[in-house]
Amino acid sequence: MKFTALQKKEERPLAGYKRFEAPGPAYIEDYLEVKDRQIPVIGTRLGFMDRLGAVKMRWGFGRSGYRVLPGVYAVGHPVPDSPVLVSANYKLSFDALRRELSGIAAWILVIDTKGVNVWCAAGKGSFGTAELASKLARTRLADLLSHRKLVLPQLAATGVSAPELAKGARFQAIWGPVMAKDLPAFLAAGMQKDKEMRLVPFGLRDRMAVAPVEFTQAAPFFGAALALSCLYALPGDAQWFGRFLGILGFSWGAILAACFAFPALLPVLPFRAFALKGALLGTAWGLCASALLGAPLLGAAGLALASAATVAFLAMGFTGASTFTSQRGATLEVERGLPWMLGALALALGLGLGSRLFGI
Amino acid sequence: MRTLYYLKNGESLELDSLHCTGCGACVDVCPHAVLVIGERAACDDEDDTPSSDEVARIVNRAACMECGACAKNCPVRAIKVESGVGCAQAIILGKLRGTAPDCDCAGGKSGSCC
């Protein structure tokens, strides 16, 4: 095998013309030679490093660097008549797609979504009509095909306009299923979707899959709680450490409840506003923790309020990870909720201080 | 699957059934089954000639997250919706910076934001 450099003529090379410089990404198994082009053939089985990478992404490590080179790839041994599947260049999206394609022959067009997943990129417009049209032109994908149809992930429809694509690039968009796992059934049925394939799922597993990201984003809250607990446990007498541990357990418990219990309980918590759902969960945790710590009345009220405000704020942030919230609804929640949260936190601090000073 | 509902969902969704051709593109791209294609209601604009007997209808407005996919893909622009990201963090950041809400998230789970 002879390895040659990526095409250097343009500043940003594309996959699907020349071989990757050795060693190349592990998911490339072979090259398909078509019309003097070397199309990378990708594997459909995820390796250990792919799985490790997915775990790292979920926990928020180096999320911005997990990208696939845009361009044309092949899976199986596609022919001019084979379908084209369009993917984002976020490696987690790319992996979610290729792992479902064993036994399928298709072309994969990876477009440049700046390493962002399909739905978010479509919302921002980077998975959009213009980018898609530009990659169609630069990859000269049409040269490899005997048709002008593209299977797009359905969630790209907030960014890609099928009528504009037809007019501008003369390609027909076919909206595939929301989830890549439904692609084999979709293709086998002659590119027909059933209603379930159109719906975006947000069951317990989906909600818990995004929870680690919330957890890592809550890092400043853990830090702030640590600092506040040090101060709150003053004076530095023999009981300082005991008080410190108590208040730290309470505050970290509230943050953990927001990160993990909240997504788990989302459908069963009453109210539509995430902040109200969170306030309820936070109050419940505050009262439990007060009972565990044996806090006096004023202290218990302070803990419940502090917990309600903190969990409400973090819970409100989960709108971003959810799949069914509108911008106008989230704006209403922010505008109405934030003043209450800040007020409750200030009042909680006052109550806590009062409780510590007067022992009530 | 259990449908989850949110505040103000679908309030800005407008469908002009007179110009709707019943092509079903909106139904195909909607992730929350807000729309269906069905027979035109008899009371719709009796004076005008509708373009089709089968048109899109809104059957679950409260499930609409105003993502804008339907409006973007309607070939006759018969749907209007004020779309945007439903993310509190993006809204707070937007307010702090004095810009429109924009999510800064670099990745996340495939299929969901932040």
Key descriptive features of the protein:
heterodimer; A: 360 residues; mainly alpha; Rossmann fold; 2 domains; three-stranded mixed sheet; two-stranded antiparallel ribbon; 13 helices; 7 strands; 10% strand; B: 114 residues; alpha+beta; Alpha-Beta Plaits; two-stranded antiparallel sheet; 12% strand; elongated; disordered C terminus
Polypeptide structure, described:
The complex is a heterodimer of chains A (360) and B (114). In chain A, the strands form 3 sheets. In chain A, strands 3-5-4 form a 3-stranded mixed β-sheet. Chain A has a two-stranded antiparallel ribbon with strand order 1-2. Chain A has a two-stranded parallel ribbon with strand order 6-7. In chain A, helix 9 (219-232) packs antiparallel against helix 10. In chain A, strand 1 (28-34) and strand 2 form a beta hairpin. Chain A has 2 domains: 28-198, Rossmann fold; 204-358, no CATH class. Helix content of chain A is 51%, strand content 10%. The termini of chain A are far apart. With 360 residues, chain A is mainly alpha-helical. Chain B is α+β, with helices and mostly antiparallel strands and 114 residues long. Chain B contains 3 helices and 4 strands, in the order E-H-E-E-H-E-H. The longest helix of chain B has 10 residues, at 88-97. Chain B is elongated and about 50 Å long. The two termini of chain B are 23 Å apart. Mean pLDDT of chain B is 83; it is low at 106-114. The chains are: A mainly alpha (360), B alpha+beta (114). At the A-B interface, helix 2, helix 3, helix 7, helix 8 and helix 13 of A face helix 1, helix 2 and helix 3 of B.
